[in-house]
Amino acid sequence: MILKNTMNRQVVLVSRPDGIPQASDFAILQTPIPAVADGQVLVRNIYLSVEPAMRGWVSAVRNYSEPVAIGAVMRSFTVGRVVESRNPGYRVGDHVTGLLGWQDYALVDAAVVLRKIDATDLPVSTALGVLGINGATAHYGLLALGTPKAGETVVVSTAAGSVGSCVGQIAAIKGCRTVGIAGGARKAGLCRSAFGFDATVDYKADGWQQALAAACPQGVDVYFDNTAGPISDAVMERLNVGARVVVCGTASVPSWDPAPIGPRVERHLLVKRARMQGFVIFDHADQHEAAYRDIAAWIRAGKVKYLEDVQQGIEHAPDAIAGLYRGDNLGKRLIHIDQA
Amino acid sequence: MILKNTMNRQVVLVSRPDGIPQASDFAILQTPIPAVADGQVLVRNIYLSVEPAMRGWVSAVRNYSEPVAIGAVMRSFTVGRVVESRNPGYRVGDHVTGLLGWQDYALVDAAVVLRKIDATDLPVSTALGVLGINGATAHYGLLALGTPKAGETVVVSTAAGSVGSCVGQIAAIKGCRTVGIAGGARKAGLCRSAFGFDATVDYKADGWQQALAAACPQGVDVYFDNTAGPISDAVMERLNVGARVVVCGTASVPSWDPAPIGPRVERHLLVKRARMQGFVIFDHADQHEAAYRDIAAWIRAGKVKYLEDVQQGIEHAPDAIAGLYRGDNLGKRLIHIDQA
After folding, report:
1. CB count in 10 Å sphere of residue B18
2. What pTM, to 2 d.p., does this model score?
3. CB nearest A270 (choices: B250, B264, B266)
4. ipTM confidence
5. Rounded mean pLDDT, A149-166
6. Does A275 touch chain B (CB under 8 A)?
7. N or C: more exposed end of chain A, with fewer CB within 10 A?
8. Which residue of B267, B273, B275, B282 is the best one to mutate when testing the A interface, meaning the one whose CB has the most A CBs within 10 A?
């Protein structure tokens, strides 16, 4: 066994956050790695994912998944390499992805592995971003729920983020005018320079509502909403008849217990015959592969670009979610684990 | 000409209401009836309709239709009888319906007439209610947007009203558990006794939120929303995964300028993968006839009942909308014009 005496660093949840999880809600434990049982695989993680949705995964507020238990390893998608296998479906050296947690090594039943990552020209890290749930979220949310048509105006919030930047680029591929909303001049600039949005709005700048109006001279046909809050309030005012609002995330809302108040939306929906639709990408696993095929082809054609914010070392994991909500990152946030 | 020297009483808008139109926003004028020109018909109105939506029709706030002009006859569906025709498509004695306005006589181009009402066993007044836009609204909104499935729970607000009562009965026909929300013990009682709701909630009674919870032990799959406001807030808390919210009206909100505030809905939509969809029934005229056929058959089979609140005399029209918002009526409010 190559792993004799190797310890596993695990980032575990030690307290139930009230709102956004902070570094102090986690601890890093060193634990021995048990023997691999029949049917199991041992995966050496390479990249750990950091998602805005993790706020919900650790929340006690009713949600779409059971909260991570106190004392448990933080739930996370990872990319790793099989280093030991007692399952005929996996061989040492296979690259895999799945909910393998914030830890150096994951010892799991093979069913926990989501899929093997085929040898490809694209980096394995993409399996956590544009070729993972972020890309699947952008693809399904925009195309299946937003149903954009050429010539329509698509507005995206958190447009510089992993999901938002992908949404904007797919909308452009479909022939739409794309308007990205991001926080700060640097992210707004990135939306134009890296992701090709037709117009961007920096919601931290004075007069951003006027900038939004100017960016949408023909109104808004599709709003891909990652924020809720005052950003969404301003977009809702500009909906066209028949508009579709895709509710993907609520990054601007620090806590939903109790729900914050804001302008009621019913009149917009009624007068504009508009639709607001929430979704959770895990419900649509049957459509992920098709999304990855599309997006991989668009990456190779230079039509979809992505950006990664890689932090070196598992010791960065505890503060990584809070950092997302502070807006520290540019692009998909990943934790890279040294393979030495 | 039978109408020589006959004067036409017309209810005209004299001021732009701020919120709900009051009696003082209207005046009744006596005007002569011009000669019928080629292609026109002269219709003697029998019933005038009174709709909650009329609030929007007279509002200067951006809407789905041009506001009724100051000095113009109040826009309204009516049922009447052709008394003079210079159009080959209509004969004296034909019963017709259309946006013929709050007046004794409507002199209009034939194109303004929506349709002839076939001789039928059902009263002509139904063309303004269950066999008019109220029924079409209930049928389209519930079936096309709410997509109820047998065994699901359907909650309806303003459940004793013309639209709400029809929604509840159609949902029952489709095998759903039906929960009606209405204001006051009398209307709540009517929901059970006349319209057969499985459970009712009187939102004016203490502890109505608990009553709502008790009425929906399996949660809420479809919410047909005629009110918005605190009633909707309570229903949104109980949505099931995959729920559909049909936004039909906002009767509980006195003014949308500015929009009132309330709990934000995004988290409900996201966690429950739920959809909120607004609609305006005038967009779906191609589906009205099919709706009327269904509903007429259900009326004859005793499966859909309707209630009319008929006021005698056009002098009741000016206060009739305000009365709806006060909750004065039981059933579809109509103004009957004496045919003497």
Report:
1. 14
2. 0.91
3. B250
4. 0.89
5. 97
6. yes
7. C
8. B267
